[in-house]
Amino acid sequence: MQGTIAFLCAMLVASAARADAFSDSRGTWIRDDGNAKVSIAPCGQQLCATNLWIRDTSKGEQAGDKLIMTLKPTSQGTLAGKAYDPKRNSTYSMTLKVTNGGLTTRGCVAAGLICRNVRWTPAK
Residue 3 region, left (φ>0) first, then alpha (ψ -120 to 50), else beta? Predict the structure, then answer.
């Protein structure tokens, strides 16, 4: 019985962490370099980040581009998993961390050898 209670408590904590991180990551965000504004919202069982506007399109980014993120909670305020970019047909490992007043994403390719951290602030 104690094992069942412990398991249920662990599941409740994991569900709460998932709800908080998923809820806190939703919204409209400005990238730290000021070049992008994205909306993060549910799309099915995943989260999608959709470009609302891009200031400099020279690197191929455009408004309407989408990143489909399949993430699970790893700790309070942190989600990790995969992100799929349908435009480039590429999959990345992804970590999304919600912090006070912001969001940090880390995307990696080449088995984690090449990574990029991006800081986001809420759009006003």
Answer: alpha
